[in-house]
Specification:
single chain; 295 residues; eight-stranded parallel β-barrel; two-stranded antiparallel sheet
Amino acid sequence: MRLSTVILPIHRWNEGQKIWQRAEDLGFHAAYTYDHLSWRSFRDAPWFGAVPTLTAAAAATESIRLGTLVTSPNFRHPVTLAKELITLDDVSGGRLTVGIGAGGTGYDATAMGQQAWSPKERANRFGEFLPLLDELLTEPSTTREGEYYEAVEARNIPGCVQRPRVPFYVAATGPRGLRLAAEYGQGWVTYGDPRGPADVPADQAPAVVAGQLAKLRTACEQRGRDVAELEKVLLQGSTAERPLASLDAFVDWAGTYRELSITELVIHWPVPDSIFENDLAVFERIATEGLAQLG
C-alpha cells in the first residue's frame, strides 16, 4: 500500500513550493492537486490552475509523483489537454499521473457560459473524451470526429516520456465509468460513497467501497482484464471517517482498506479554517510512520 497527498492549489508559489517540497521530504508516493476553476468553500478565496501548479511542482521536486485528482471534461478539451499533459510529463521527467473523471455540477460546470450537463450527457461526453485523450497521447497525429469532441490532424510529437502514455487513474462508480476504467485505466479512484458524508455512517463506509470494488472486478472480467493490474486509489475526505484525527485512527483506517485491496490512500494536506483542518504535526507523523505500523 502507498500513501499520497492532495495539496490544494490555494497558495502563492513562494509558499506553495515549500509544501510540495515538504511532501517529497516526508516520503509521500505522490502529491496531487484538484483541477477546478474554483471549488466549494474556496470559491471566493485564492485558487490557482492545476497544470501550472504541477509544472512548478515538477521543477521544485525530484522524485515524488505528481498528478491531477481529478481533471474532467467540464472545462477541458482533449486536444489542448493532451498537449499540456505531454509537456508536464516532460518537465517532470516522467512523474505524471492523470487522475480523470466525468466531472460534476459544481462551479466548473457553468463558468464558461454553458448549461450544466445532465448525468447522461456527462457520461456520454466522458465516453468520447477518454478514448480521444488516449489516442492523442499515444499517436503522433490524431484525426477523430465525435458527437462532442473532434481532432483534426492534431500533432503530439514527441509524445509522453512514459510509454505508451502517462497513466490514467479513472474516477468512477457507475457502470459506464467502470467500463472505461477497465479499458483505459492504469488505476481506479473512489472517494467512497457518492451521496456524501452525511448519508453513510463511518462504520459502513468500507462496505460501500467493497461494493464498488466488486463492480470494478466485474467490469475488468467483462473486458478480459485482471483487476490486479489496476491501482485502487481511495481519496480521503468525503466520508464521515476521520483517519487524520490521530496516528492510531489512521492505522485502523488504512488497515481496513488494505484488507479490501486498496493499494493507494490519498490524504488531504491540512488547510487551517477549512473542512481540511487537521493538526500538521499529527499529519506529518502519519506520513512518516502510518503505513509502517500496518506491519
